[in-house]
Amino acid sequence: MRMREFIREPEALFWSMIFPLALAAGLGIAFRNRPPEVLKVAAVTPRLAEALRQEKLLDVTQLPPELAEQFVRTGKVALVAEPAPDGSVIYRYDDTNPEGRQARMLADQAIQRASGRQDPVAGNDQIMREPGSRYIDFLIPGLIGMGIMGNSIWGPGFSIVDARRKKLLKRIVATPMPKHYYLLSFLLWRMILLPVDVGVPLGFGVLVFGIPLRGPFIALVGTCVLATLAFSAGGLLIASRVRTIEAASGLMNLSMVPMWILSGVFFSSQRFPDLVQPIIKALPLTALIDALRANMLQGAGIAQMTQQAAVLGAWLVVCFGLALRLFRWR
């Protein structure tokens, strides 16, 4: 029955299979490895402009002072260099802009070398672009975790609320099936769909972008199974008393959206203050994504992922226990 419901819903097929691939392809192309970006800067004197042009990563334009200041304010150039009365150089840029900070460093190096500075120690660059250090390698585990969470919470939750809304659960009350059998059926259904939830984005990442799989495959599978059970238990808990689709949708979004932001799907969770890091580490999506990245990118095995497994196991036990206690047929 659940298989037929899933296949007959084009929205479910889109969000579980097509959307993760489209998102991975778009972000993978947007953040692909590219040569260093050439930054646009301005100089107000020919001497400074000539010195800045010695740096290959700077696109230098000579402008009058008033126009140069307007260009840096409107973002047309990342930095303006102009001479000071005491012979020094004034750099005008936005220090909150990464391009401005990089342009300041490159411009100062170019001007100092043009003035005769010699580096006491020569340096040689050795460029390393290996799978595992790219943004797409960071992204795919996050998308897998987000897909497991979304499908595991929305699937069981909406099915139960929809059945309750249509008065179908009242008919099940007349059968000898206990409620824990009914709830466990949703966990089994998620296990059947797990190869699709994980295999589609993982296979796409490996085949198209060459994502590495450095850790034991059994550890990867075990983590995904435990996470699916934990998130499905969360979906059962949300749907245990809810009677309307609108209320279920609100509660599910309330539980998932903070994890989309905090758990490091698209950027590292370490960007948040240290004060909230214990809370972030306790979230199930954070544990899942950290475990996936440790396994796929760093080669971590089961022993190295015990902390994340403990977090997921705790969410599974607590959520399923509360769902059993709070669930009502009507």
Question: What features would you describe in this structure?
Answer:
With 330 residues, this protein is mostly helical. The chain folds into two domains: 39-114, D-Maltodextrin-Binding Protein, domain 2, CATH 3.40.190.10; 131-326, no CATH class. The chain contains 13 helices and four strands. A four-stranded mixed sheet has the order 2-1-3-4, with helices on both faces. The two termini are 21 Å apart. The mean pLDDT is 85.
Mean pLDDT: 85
Query: Which residues form runs of ≥5 with pLDDT under 50?
Result: none
Kindly estimate the percentage of residues that lie in beta strands according to DSSP: 5-15%
Number of helices: 13
Distance between the termini: 21 Å
- Shape annotation: elongated
The string of secondary-structure elements, in order, is: HHEHEHEEHHHHHHHHH
**How many domains, as an integer?**
2
Main sheet makeup: 4 strands, mixed
Structural class: mainly alpha
Helix content bin: 55-70%
SSE layout and pairings?
Elements: H1 2-8, H2 10-30, E1 39-43, H3 46-52, E2 58-62, H4 65-73, E3 79-83, E4 89-92, H5 98-114, H6 135-165, H7 168-173, H8 179-209, H9 217-238, H10 245-262, H11 277-281, H12 284-298, H13 306-326
Parallel strand pairs: 1-2, 1-3
Antiparallel strand pairs: 3-4
Short description:
This protein is mainly alpha-helical and 330 residues long.
Task: Describe this protein with a few key phrases.
mainly alpha, 2 domains, 330 residues, 13 helices, 4-stranded mixed β-sheet, D-Maltodextrin-Binding Protein, domain 2
